[in-house]
Amino acid sequence: MNSNFWQNLKKPFFVLAPMEDVTDTVFRRMVIKFGRPDVFFTEFTSVEGMFSPGSMEVAKRLKYTSEELPLIAQLWGVNPENFRKAASLIADLGFTGIDINMGCPVRKIIKTGGCSALIRTPDLAKEIFLATKEGAKGLPVSVKTRIGFKSIDTENWIGEVLAWKPDALTVHGRTVAELSKVPCHWDEIGRAVKLRDEISPETVVVGNGDVKSVNEGKELAARWGVDGVMIGRGVFENPFVFREDAGVSADLRDRLEMVRGHVLLHREVWGDNHNFNPLKKFFKMYIRGFDGAANIRDEMMRMSTIDEILLYIDSHLKL
Ligand SMILES: Cc1cc2nc3c(=O)[nH]c(=O)nc-3n(C[C@H](O)[C@H](O)[C@H](O)COP(=O)(O)O)c2cc1C
């Protein structure tokens, strides 16, 4: 794949957002069954961690199967040299592209100087971008960011990023200070598209924030001119979110089978020793939208092993 990858997608294309502790290889493979997006991202992966003694743990984030391609590896960190080395490794691992996280607003991450903190250090941000590009062996390099740190600063900050001429740019239409507490400023995403037209016409722009269906995404793309739309939390409300026919019927049995499919794949990929609690968010995601869902969900929330879940599902399906 060369840097035309982003250019070659039919527009508007749809992307599953990178989400820490959610979009691992297991969930991405489940999403493929429910209705696949055009592009996947990994969870954010620390370039510092990749070259530390804990690197085996970090590498789990980069596990994937070929069915998940096209797949973009998302990196974060502060050391340009580590980005260069990481980019080279990512290229050898067969990913479709590399994305640099310049948007995560979590306080302990900001303290490291990485992710959204880079909005305040544009020289370092640029150095990181260029180092990644150098290491990437021709893979496309993209950036995912927000529209400012404390206040909306689209003109300056997005203008700065576009001057580096990234292959793609995902704009989450909120500032860092806004976290997810206010509605997404899609008008600012539209402004980013206009800046792209002036500064870097070759850059593909992906809009992100609050999109709950493909139809809504298509309307937003038509209105604001983005090339693609990224959906994150929309998949929690509707695992079938990437299907055009969003009203997919999924009854109790289907939903229990979704949980069973997920926990079995989880066990196959990660083994039984993997922490069970992070699986609970998937029970919330799958078990909804039918009579009695709340009760079943509550019962599943009290369980603590995959075997318990499987027995529970078996007994329910026999009813
Ligand atoms: C649980 C969770 C984890 C996230 N992890 C990441 C991440 O690893 N990298 C990243 O760029 N954004 C991350 N995000 C932000 C999302 O990618 C996305 O930008 C944000 O949720 C807004 O889109 P939405 O309104 O469609 O959810 C995360 C969001 C959530 C809810």
Description:
- The protein has 319 residues and is an alpha/beta fold.
- The chain has two domains: 13-237, Alpha-Beta Barrel (TIM Barrel); 252-318, no CATH class.
- The protein is built from 14 helices and nine strands.
- An eight-stranded parallel beta barrel has the order 1-2-4-5-6-7-8-9, surrounded by five helices.
- Helix 1 runs antiparallel to helix 11, helix 4 runs parallel beside helix 6 and helix 11 runs antiparallel to helix 14.
- It is globular and about 60 Å long.
- It starts with 12 loop residues before the first strand and ends with a helix.
- The model has no long low-confidence stretch (mean pLDDT 95).
- Bound molecules: flavin mononucleotide.
CATH topology descriptor of the largest domain: TIM Barrel
CATH architecture of the largest domain: Alpha-Beta Barrel
H and E order: EHEEHHEHEHHEHEHEHEHHHHH
Please bin the fraction of helical residues: 40-55%
What distinguishing features does this structure have?
single chain; alpha/beta; eight-stranded parallel beta barrel; 319 residues
Short structural summary:
The protein is of the alpha/beta class and 319 residues long. The protein has helices at 25-34, 47-50, 55-59, 80-92, 107-110, 122-135, 154-163, 186-199, 214-224, 234-237, 252-270, 280-286, 293-301, 306-318; strands at 13-16, 39-41, 45-46, 71-76, 97-102, 141-146, 168-172, 204-208, 228-231. The chain folds into two domains: 13-237, TIM Barrel, CATH 3.20.20.70; 252-318, no CATH class.
SSE layout and pairings?
Layout: E1 13-16, H1 25-34, E2 39-41, E3 45-46, H2 47-50, H3 55-59, E4 71-76, H4 80-92, E5 97-102, H5 107-110, H6 122-135, E6 141-146, H7 154-163, E7 168-172, H8 186-199, E8 204-208, H9 214-224, E9 228-231, H10 234-237, H11 252-270, H12 280-286, H13 293-301, H14 306-318
Helix pairs in contact: 1-11, 4-6, 7-8, 11-14
The structure holds flavin mononucleotide (FMN).
The site of flavin mononucleotide has 21 residues, from loops.
